[in-house]
Design the sequence.
């Protein structure tokens, strides 16, 4: 398997970025995660304020004082922004464009934060150290919280199915908690 270097991940334009990073369902490509030798953890709903702080701290540990936010909707890029890395900006990045899919990353694409449109779920992808510094609980507890949310708060059976498919794609196991 080819391991990708940082240099190979600097894209000529947003179109190239999205073609490589996204799958057909507008989620983060499992192949991209595998190629990077990363893990990905889906989490319920929108980003909580404390998660914004944890994500900001994790980005700082990577040596980044800024991050890039890509907002897309209806198969097109709505907006791309470069922002100062802090928990307030990250929280606002997640909430200000709630109708869009959101990707946050740094210049070298050392991690990806992804939020499904309308906050159905969000996802942390990166090294295990990065992901678990953002999630701050065990995989087992994360799974329990994720499915309790999806079962109790999803607006429809279709939303529950999207959550279930996301968990299976990124975690690849049975759904028993």
Sequence:
């Amino acid at each position: 398997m080819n391991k990708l270097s940082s240099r190979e991940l600097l894209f000529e334009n947003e179109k190239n970025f999205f073609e490589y990073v996204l799958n057909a369902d507008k989620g983060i490509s499992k192949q991209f995660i595998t190629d990077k030798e990363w893990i990905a953890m889906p989490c319920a709903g929108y980003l909580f304020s404390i998660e914004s702080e944890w994500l900001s701290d994790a980005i700082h540990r990577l040596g980044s004082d800024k991050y890039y936010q890509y907002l897309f909707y209806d198969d097109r890029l709505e907006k791309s922004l470069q922002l100062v890395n802090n928990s307030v900006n990250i929280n606002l990045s997640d909430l200000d464009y709630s109708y869009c899919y959101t990707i946050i990353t740094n210049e070298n694409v050392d991690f990806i934060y992804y939020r499904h449109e309308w906050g159905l779920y969000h996802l942390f992808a990166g090294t295990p150290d990065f992901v678990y510094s953002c999630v701050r609980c065990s995989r087992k507890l994360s799974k329990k919280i994720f499915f309790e949310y999806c079962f109790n708060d999803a607006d429809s059976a279709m939303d529950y199915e999207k959550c279930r498919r996301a968990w299976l794609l990124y975690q690849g196991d049975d759904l028993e908690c």
